What we know:
Shape of chain A: globular
Distance between the termini of chain A: 41 Å
Number of strands of chain A: 11
Structural class of chain B: mainly beta
Strand content of chain A: over 45%
Oligomer: heterodimer
Number of helices of chain B: 0
Helix content of chain A: under 10%
Amino acid sequence: KQEVTQIPAALSVPEGENLVLNCSFTDSAIYNLQWFRQDPGKGLTSLLLIQSSQREQTSGRLNASLDKSSGRSTLYIAASQPGDSATYLCAVRPAQGGSEKLVFGKGTKLTVNP
Amino acid sequence: GAVVSQHPSWVICKSGTSVKIECRSLDFQATTMFWYRQFPKQSLMLMATSNEGSKATYEQGVEKDKFLINHASLTLSTLTVTSAHPEDSSFYICSAIRTVNYGYTFGSGTRLTVV
């Protein structure tokens, strides 16, 4: 059974700092991995999608890497801003079992202090 | 980019009434849609998976007669909370996918309060 773990559960940093959020998954048989952001009381916003054949994806100040063989992904946020404060969720789409269900981590709550 | 519209964003209803929540994929045809429930400060909990034209598949412990899902077209799925009770108050979120190469797109969520 696929399990996704995110470390740390919460992170507080001063504005301007670069930071890394970690995600690990137990089964390397995945189609893709997706990073989301959730603001309080809101839905999920997709940040980056990495296919299983890819190593990384970049969007603006965000960079996500994927090491499928070791079951790890990182989300790098450069020059953090208070507006980056949110909960960041990592999710994988398993390639086995025929299921289309995403498997989520519990998230990392990020606070960027002005 | 892919956009999923969820409506209403919030609703307050009386106990015993039914509430319908709509989830629409605006610029793509969704092969599958999902309905989640989220309690405060907790993770998303998958309720059911729906495919156009077929019955929804409910997760264990989710009452299918209480949470009616209709996936009438490739762009619309609805969740109806029947005979709502205060314990049904929660944040409901839908998501949709096209094919395996595309990611999941989520709606903005619906805050349901049953009084």
